[in-house]
Amino acid sequence: METSAAASVQPSPRETLDSVVIRFAGDSGDGMQLTGSQFTTATADAGNDLATFPDFPAEIRAPAGTTYGVSGYQIHFAAHSVLTPGDAPDVLVAMNPAALKVNEEALKPGGLVVINTGAFTSNNLKKAGYETNPLEDGSLDKFRVLALDISKMTLASVKDLGLGSKEANRCKNMWTLGLMYWLFGRERGQTIAWLNQKFAKRPKLAEANIAALNAGHIYGENAELPHGINAYEVPSADLTPGEYRNINGNEATAWGLVTGARLAGLEMVYGSYPITPASNLLHHLARLKHFGVTTFQAEDEIAAVAAAVGASFGGAIGVTGTSGPGVALKSETIGLAIAAELPLVVVDVQRGGPSTGLPTKTEQSDLLQAVWGRNGDAPLAVLAAATPGDCFYMAIEAIRIAVKYMTPVILLTDGYVANSSEPWPLPDLDSLTPFPVKHHVDPEGFHPFLRNDRTLARVWAVPGTPGTEHRIGGLEKDRNTGHISYDPHNHHLMTLAREQKIAGIANDLAPAKVDQGDPEGDLLIVGWGSTYGSISQAVHVLRERGHSVSHLHLRHIWPLPDGLREVLHSFKSILVPELNNGQLVKLLRAEMDVEAESLTRVTGQPFRIGGLINAVSERLRNGS
Amino acid sequence: MSPNPPKKEYDRKDFASDQEVRWCPGCGDYAILAAVQRTLPSLGCSPENTVFISGIGCSSRFPYYMNTYGFHTIHGRAPAIASGLKLANPDLDVWVITGDGDGLSIGGNHLLHVLRRNLDLQIMLFNNQIYGLTKGQYSPTSQVGKVTPSSPLGSIDQPVVPARFALGAGATFVARAYDTSKKLPEGLTAAKQHKGASFIEILQNCPVFNDGVFEMITDRKTGPAHQLWLEHGKPMTFGANGEKGLRLNPQSLSLDVVTIGEDGVTEDDIIVHDETNASLAWMLTDLPEVVALGVLYRHPGPVYNEAVVVQRKMAEERFGAPDLNALLRQGHTWTVS
Question: Which residue of chain A comes nearest to B89, CA vs CA?
């Protein structure tokens, strides 16, 4: 580049956008998740609100160039509040033909597609299933296309560093990131620091990646972009002042569990068997031994929950994390914890089912399994986290309920909330109310099923305590002595006691109220779990259009909060959108005596805001 | 503080609960229960610090009869529940009670893994070669041909040898005894004193569904010819007058039963027991004519729950005092003003 040319470039005014959705897509080995997460950090630093969603294949390294090996990462950022990773992308980065093939339908008409032409070889086109080259056959005419040989320009940017061609080629994600940073006015400093740290032991790789990043950025500064493609700016959002970090749901759950155990003053034993998408709960917690956490990678799902139950018997808080198939395996042991009335937290990071189903895709189809999926009348508490950050608070709530009521608690999250991230205002830990556990140590009049009059929780006396030696188990106990009892009347009363204990948890909960909108009206949308963002934004739009629509989001699924029946009956109709084939809707019909209508999506993907708005508008037009 | 400080000395009665024992009359479990209640006080155990964890089956009712802490859990899972308990409180003295069905069939996986991890617990496997509580079906240790309600023409399942399973799993302590043996307390004592997972198989008579299955071994008259009591460093002899013994056959790498004084066999030919020798232990698990009893194998190795404590200390030294505020701020944070 001649200096005179560089000097002649005039800083062109950037076009201001209110919000942008970008999807980075490439081969699973192309580093798209890293690219996306770096863009996310830079975007948070720029003061935008944002939400992200990674979408990666189940295969670890699918054959290069295939459509089933495409890994994606979507980020939605804006000058206003953002609750979802967005519906259709405005910008698609396609690192190879397969990435274009998989994602081009999702892109908005008129959207910008950034293409690495270097990967558009006849071989790659064939692997992606293209009969003709989309760069030449006019099929991309409805988009704005920025077609660049990113592979070649990356190699040029690192050619003096003496890397092998494979290592040099792997820098192309950083070149792309550099270009995207320039297009959207993000700063490179944080990524440069991160690369230096990541490759501290291989400084040449750090240098090469930084060179590629800078080269992509310089390309943007100097290149004459095709007509219709500008540099953009997205002004910072009006976020509540405070200290923020990005957090995904699994991180938040792990940290919430640690925080909850400390608020209870208990050691935690986390038993787990690796399963997608819950495995990184185990990874996070394994690093936190100094917080009083013992992690146990068990031989199977059953041993994982059994170890947690054993730990709770020993006076710690036993926790296990898994996904739907794992909950199925754990059911009998969860029943044991119900019968023995021991605290236990089961985190179910739901995924597509049945059976192995769609391990890397999201779904909300374990609700009925969580509430009713055990032999016998076996009630427990079921919670559901609404957002990545909410996982932190719901994990604390799960431990609080487990130890206060001596009961298993299932916390439902899902693959979407577990892997998406959002800016999270850091909590003021001093504002969290401790709930210290006092184990029972008084032998006077002791038996293991002495209950607290108010909560109906039994006493928690732990091995090692003199004078309270006792035996418990899965057999029915006499309500007055804790010994084995086959007495019919006793079994009836114990069944009722277990039911009433769980029902009584509602006394601890805030009464049901709508999250958005009026307390009565035409339509109430009742959601639960990770659909919070989509429903909330859809309702916001519908209300701006003048519709009488409100949103109520359940975080306590069982027991349901008090007052829910009254709220539900204050609306002419009720719609329950779920990422399953209709589960909460059945529960509400059965328990709340309401005519609720179901809206389902079982595609392994979150709701689109636009889809929800359309579905609701149609119902309102039809007068339902 | 507790109004009843623990007594210094305990006796058998301190370990007996007030619950009526409900095994069938003549069940071998009675003798095992009595041996445990007699042995624990002699080992300095206290009721408050002792926990019995069991699965499902006749043997698994055991905890109800001990005045200690006890957890009668679900079928096959006792080793996993005991593992979690030991992790939560490594100071507890944890015993697992299981049977041939509970431990080797439905719970075989957990038994395998608790043994290879070598958690410091004692595992007593009551082997009666039958399913008792479900009324007499063949078990994974039943002999081929065993006629039961679920095998009217005889079992066609090849049986598992419990001690062999344990050795294969990497157990560091494998012993064998029988229910009415006077030497059972010795076996329990050795199991308790071993650091790591101690596996003790106890041959147990089920008088209702499998009566007399071990009679040749346990009968006063026939027993001496079929019981080989092992002692570390001692020649492996048996028989009423110690006239029989085991000799290593170097050709087949197996143990032959020989008679001292016959065919030129002398006492020097008899192999000496080395309980640290896994190959020898393997051969002892399944002998012709005779059953090896006592400690087959004892070779201490790294103990899982101790390694957990070591790693905890490492983490505490590396990362210092736990600080939730710092945890939440690790990585990148920013301030919106």
Answer: A314
Helix (H, G, I), strand (E, B) or coil at B142: coil
Tokens, residue A622: 């039809």
Q: Are A314 and B88 in contact (CB under 8 A)?
A: yes
Distance (Å, whole) CA A345 – CA A16? 47
Best residue in A469, A472, A484 for a mutation probing chain B (most B CBs within 10 Å): A469
Q: Please tell me the distance in Å from B189's CA to the nearest CA on chain A.
A: 21
* B177 backbone dihedrals φ, ψ, rounded to 5°: -150, 180
Q: Which chain B residue has the Cα nearest residue A245?
A: B333
Phi, psi at A364, each rounded to 5°: -120, 45
- Terminal CA-CA length for chain B: 52
Angle between helix axes A249-264 and A388-405 (nearest 10 degrees) is 30
**pLDDT tens column, A312-334:** 999 999 999 999 999 999 999 99
Output phi, psi for A524, to 5 deg. Answer: -110, 125
Amino acid at B267: E
Q: Where are the beta strands (DSSP E) in A28-167?
A: 49-55, 70-78, 91-94, 112-116, 144-148
Q: At what angle do helices A279-286 and A249-264 cross, to 10 degrees?
A: 50
Q: Return phi, psi of residue A299, to 5°.
A: -75, -20
- pTM for this entry: 0.94
The 10s digit of each residue's pLDDT in A560-594 is 999 999 999 999 999 999 999 999 999 999 999 99
ipTM (interface predicted TM) = 0.97
What is the DSSP secondary-structure string of A517-581? Answer: S-SSEEEEEEEEGGGHHHHHHHHHHHHHTT--EEEEEESEEESPPTTHHHHHTTEEEEEEEESSS
Q: Which residues contact B47 (CB under 8 A, 6 or more apart)?
A: A469, B10, B14, B15, B66, B67, B68
